[in-house]
Amino acid sequence: MALKPTHDLHDRRYGRNLGVGLTLAAFIAVIFGLTVVKVTRGDFESPRAATSASGTAAETEDTQ
Question: Could you give the angle at the alpha carbon of 38 between the alpha carbons of 25 and 30, nearest 5°?
């Protein structure tokens, strides 16, 4: 029993799927790279730390 050769439709679909997959992988790599750069530069602050820092400053001004 011989296998049938793949149809032209399957070849085109494979090429399109490969292109979409590579584009998605490139997008994920860019987002990951930007995240790594932002964290290593020290620009990242958790929302809780930013809130407590501003709250501390406001409390100090109110008491003086």
Answer: 15
In tens, the pLDDT along 26-52 reads 999 999 999 999 888 877 677 775 555
The residue whose two tokens read 């620009």 is 43
Contact status, residue 50 vs residue 58, Cβ threshold 8 Å: no
Distance in angstroms (rounded) separating the CA atoms of residues 39 and 34: 9
Whole-structure pTM value: 0.56
Go through 14-53 and write b for each residue having 16 or more CB atoms within 10 A of its CB, e for each that does not: eeeeeeeeeeeeeeeeeeeeeeeeeeeeeeeeeeeeeeee
For 7, phi and psi rounded to 5 degrees? -80, 155
